[in-house]
Amino acid sequence: MTPLQAVAPLVIFVLICLLMASVRILREYERAVVFTLGRFERVKGPGLVLLMPIVQQMVRVDLRIQVIEIPSQDVISRDNVSMKVDAVLYFNVVNPEHAIIQVQSYRPATNMLAQTTLRAVLGQHDLDEMLSERKKLSTDVQSILDAQTETWGIKVTNVEIRTVELTENMVRAIAKQAEAERDRRAKVIHAQAEFQASQTLVDAATILSSIPAAMQLRYLQTLTEIGAEQNTTVVFPMPIDIMKPFLSLLETAAHDKLDASKYHPPVAVPAATAAAVA
Asked: Taking the domains of the chain in order of start, what are their residue ranges?
């Protein structure tokens, strides 16, 4: 065996290793950030990527949307209510060059930034706003994160506040507040119903007083309703209008009597005359 034949297998093995080290295949959602002697060259992919062994290196970057679960954070609201809030963050890499060069590790960095931003944003709102305007708060957190991670080549697509956990004392307080609010609404509705009913009665009384025949028809209708129940006793209301003439006569007689006593006072009779008459 010649020396060339002995070295040939080693040469073939080295060539195969170099070929494997220089050929990379990237999927559709992957990009390669290529460095030549430590300096950034360009972003390659997807598909077949050829590298110069030892001289060039590459870093794979996934462009798909990634999900990060923000762990439960202790938050104190603006009205001094303690709670625990967790959320879900959705983001993707839009600039592989910045995602690799501008930040050491973009995923943990985005996670930590999301935690601090979530505490800062929720701490500026009251508890009622957190419970009723959760979508608006999520949008605010998403816009702040998106602005801060833009220099990293990260696009924050969505932030969802998942759970707002309150203490047991606060849950009981909210339940009492909701019950008091329901009672208030019930009383207001009842008062409004009484007011509307009184207005309707006033309108009905005005109409009936303007037309005497309508009052008589109402009396007859009342008698019909009472008679339908087969009652042995019927209480018939006496209209005030019938009694008015008699009341007027009595009042006139009282005034006449008062006037007579005023203008014709009784005459005092002497005692001697009274004795003589006796």
From this structure: 13-62, 66-166, 170-227
